[in-house]
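In response to a reviewer's request, we include the raw inputs and outputs for one of the modeled complexes. The two entities were modeled together in a single run.
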Amino acid sequence: MSATGSSNPEYVNARVSARRATLFDEEDYRKLLRMSPDEISRYMEESTYQGPINRLGSRFSGVDLIEYALNAGLAETFDELLAWANGRLYEQVARYLRKFDAWNVKTAVRGVYAGTDPEAVEDDLIRAGEFDDALLDQLVEAESVDAIVDLLDGTIFGDPLAAAAEEYDESGMLVPLENAIDRAYYENLFEGVTSASGAGPESAYAEYLQAEIDFRNVRNALRLARSGAEVDPAEYFIEGGTLFTPEELSTLSRNRDQLVEHIRESRYGDELAGALDEMAEADSLIGFEHAIDAALVEHARNAGHAHPMSVCPVIAFVLAKEREVDNIRAIARGTQAGLDPEEIRAELVVE
Amino acid sequence: MFENALQVASLVLQDASGPAITSTGMAALAVGLAGLGAGYAERGIGSAAVGAVAEDDDLFVQALILTVLPETILIFALVAMILA
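The model returned the following structure tokens for the whole complex.
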């Protein structure tokens, strides 16, 4: 509702746990895997996506309908979270949901870079963050990276993006811009956490954020190492994690075995043991990234159980909801492309 | 004035015919504090209950029962009041 007043975790967490219970589970996914896109949208109509499906049903059909309804449902759910929360809880949730501002800015930048037409870019926006519709529309219409930077002047992304835009002009690569966005987002996130030490709910949240940043660093490093680009991962290191220092990251990303070993010995070792074994065997990055996602959901859920009166359960719900949307999208796209249900099953992130 | 303070104090003490707070007064205090405690407990439970009912109407009865549970502490306070 607003950042004033006192925090109301009781109310928000009661509603959030009810919502969590309505998320699709293993059973639902199994059913969806056997359906055609039209049947999937029909199935979604009987779930929490009823509103968006009905609204968009007359304009779109098939996979497009599913895609739009998923994005609209996501935005709707997160707007509701903000409407429920008050005080400090609102502030923390709002800071976390800026993730979607970051996503939208990235989408706009990528659109400009790839020369995609504004309509296609608009389709990919998730209107869940703090930017209002007017600003988002302007971002979509922007014709150059500089125009985007000008539009974002005064927001948390303004200054970092302006600095990164110069680098972009020189190198013509997107990576500096995207990393500037990520960094701005995470820096802002940590400002909302008062203490990172001790054993209270705040430190559990801080620990979760550290895990998220660590996993992002791991992912970036692995991707860069794999693509073979001549970029030093340390340049794009996101501060705040505990797993690496920038120097460690740049040496480790060149040698994957060492990187795996480093993760195995860290505090995430137990959570990720299975995924690491799999990656060492199958040589597949996708499987590992899914395992990272699943570990993150698990981590947030544990923090939420341990501290039910903090922001943790809300964050756990946000993550679980995102995974749900990803999963349904994967099923719809996969089915349309004629993939085998078993193959699609491997793409899902189910707790 | 200060020289006399001790004498005045002892006079006052002698004058008092009983304890500063009578047992009825103490019992009244107990009821008041218990009410305050029950109110604080219901604040949290109540807002969680409203959240749960907003998501699912069927929970209304359970939510109502859980919300008034802290009132039981007041019954004890009333017993204390009667006994006092």
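As requested, we also summarize the result in words. The domain at 1-174+317-351 of chain A is CATH 1.10.132.50 (Topoisomerase I; Chain A, domain 4). Chain A has two domains: 1-174+317-351, 201-306.
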